[in-house]
Amino acid sequence: MLEKCVRLEADGVTWGPHRGKPIVEDISLSVKAGDRLAIIGPNGAGKSTVLRCLYRGVRPQRGMVRLDGIDLWSIGPREAARRIAVVLQESPGDFPFSVRDVVMMGRIPHRKGMARWSEEDHATTAAALARLELKDLALRQFSSLSGGEKQRVLIARALAQEPELIILDEPTNHLDIRHQLEILELLKGLGRTIITTLHDINLAADFATHVAVLASGRLTGHGLPTEILTPERISSAFRVEASRQEIGDHRFTFSLR
Ligand SMILES: Nc1ncnc2c1ncn2[C@@H]1O[C@H](COP(=O)(O)OP(=O)(O)OP(=O)(O)O)[C@@H](O)[C@H]1O
């Protein structure tokens, strides 16, 4: 089911540190409402930097990011935060926040000034907790949760934000294979436009409607997984020998060259 979704386009996006060489260069991609894009590439390729450009974390030095055709930098940070939820690997740490508090933080972009939480804020937070099956953990301290539970809480916070687009950086990091599959299944079921980085190419192929391959700051392919995930492209991007397995359309095994 498609809920609130948005289309995103990046056109020639280039970013690097002040006075430094660009880290990502000439990134053009298009994500339709309801698509799930997985960005894959080796360590240091620039995946997190591309995400930062897409969620208004940094302003591209060249090129433009558009949400439903509108320049992301022509809307304020608050509106951007209402429309785009970001799930990063950093977490609220050891501060004494309960799970409910953390999920409630997703409502901050919707709050009017320093007003108290509204009934809608409470209801949306409760719905996000229920959807992620976190009701029994609502009063637990966030820092006491397991990695998989924390990841679910951060996704619930994103959902409480009622965004049209969810951007995630390595949501399956540190999770065992069951929890990796669970998190990706859950994200699929949200019915939102999703852009995520993923290290596991086989998981990306199963999860994503579209894949973008990044190597040395440039896209080497962007499109349907069956078209983009070729042994040649993967071997070249990751500097390994990738071979396609007989099972499934795009299952790969890897070895050093
Ligand atoms: N603000 C910055 N200033 C200088 N260099 C930076 C900055 N941000 C990122 N880099 C460098 O740019 C390169 C790409 O970083 P980025 O985190 O985007 O890669 P990545 O593909 O997400 O890597 P990984 O898979 O290891 O998480 C790295 O070499 C990183 O050190």
TrEMBL record:
Source superkingdom: Bacteria
InterPro entries linked: AAA+_ATPase (IPR003593), ABC_transporter-like_ATP-bd (IPR003439), ABC_transporter-like_CS (IPR017871), P-loop_NTPase (IPR027417)
Pfam families in the record: ABC_tran
GO molecular function: ATP binding
Keywords: ATP-binding, Nucleotide-binding
Protein family according to the UniProt entry: Belongs to the ABC transporter superfamily.
CDD domains on file: ABC_Iron-Siderophores_B12_Hemin
Organism annotation: Rhizobium calliandrae
Protein name listed in UniProt: ABC transporter ATP-binding protein
